[in-house]
Amino acid sequence: MIPDFLILPAVILAFITATSLLVSWNWRLSIFSLAIQYVCVVVLVSSSWPLETAAVKLVAGWMACAVMALALRNQPDDLIVGGGRSISDIVFRLIAAVMAGLFAFTGGTRLVLWLPEISVEQAYGSMILIALGLLHLGLTNHPFRVVLGLLTLLSGFEILYAAVESSILIAGLLAIVTLGLAIICAYLLTAPTLEEAS
Amino acid sequence: MNSAFIWILFPGLIAIILLLLQNREYLVAILATVTALLLAGLAVWLPLQEQIVLWRWAIPFSDTFLIFGRRVVLSAADRPSLIIIYLTAALWFGAAPLARPNKLFVPLGLGVAAFLTAAIAIEPFLFAAVLIEVAVLASIPFLSPPGARAGRGVVRYLTFQTIGMPFILISGFMFTGFEVGPGNAEIVAIATALLVIGFALLLAVFPFHTWIPMLAEESHPYSTAFILLLLPVAVSIFGLGFLDRFVWLKDSPNTALLLQIVGVVMVLTAGIWAAVEKHLARIMGFAVILDVGFSLIAVGLAVGTDNEFFRVLFITGLLPRGLSLGVLALALSGLIGNVDKLNMENIRGIGKKYPFISTSILLALFCLAGVPLLAGFPLKLGVIEGLSEIAPQISIWIIIGSLGLFIAGIRTMIVIVSGEVESDNDTPEPLILKIFLAIGWVLLVLLGILPNFFIQMIINLPAAFTQIGPLS
Question: Which partner for B324 in A141, B309, B313, B367 could form a disulfide, CB atoms 3.0-4.6 Å apart?
Answer without folding.
Answer: B367
